[in-house]
Amino acid sequence: MTHDPALDAFFEIGVAVPLGAHTFDADGIKAFARKYDPQPFHLNEQAAKNSVFGGLCASGWHTAAAWMKRNLATSGKAWAGEGPAPEFGPSPGITGLKWLKPVYAGETVAYSRTALSHRAIASRPGWRVLTVRAEGIDSRGDKVIEFDSAVLVKVD
Question: pLDDT for 70-114, tens place per residue?
């Protein structure tokens, strides 16, 4: 639950913030797969063609990692409240991760985040949990990934 108008404005509660886009090319898909998700439909065009996907597609983890990279590269609004600016800390986790549609080689996904809420952490005075909805939309306008992410934020 939110109670601080300055924090609400800073976190942009309820506002979909565009984070930019990422194009998943075949070489990038294969490189990510070799390191982190070496399944045949991420590594080899022929194996992918013969799979349920029918073509080379990115790992869902790759689509999530691309969101994180875009999220971190996108600076937030300037702090207009009293005292020092909030400091973003680690994430205690994500919920509701859904890979809704395959992302094929050559596809570009546009990412966004929408801050949903923030609340104080009773056991950590001065810290809050900010919850955001993460989304990725392909060039056809279809959602390909969605999850809710929490992040710890120090506010004093």
Answer: 999 987 678 888 888 899 999 999 999 999 999 999 999 999 999
Classify 77 as helix, strand or coil. coil
Helix (H) or strand (E) holding 60, with range, is: helix 60-73
How far apart (Å, rounded) are the C-alpha atoms in residues 49 and 137? 23
Total count of residues recorded for the chain: 156
CA distance 118 to 3: 9
Q: What angle do CA 1, 100, 52 make, to 5 degrees?
A: 160
Report strand pairing: 107-120 vs 93-99. Answer: unpaired
**Where do we find the tokens 């971190």?**
72
Structure tokens, 29: 């898909």
Identity of the residue numbered 61: W
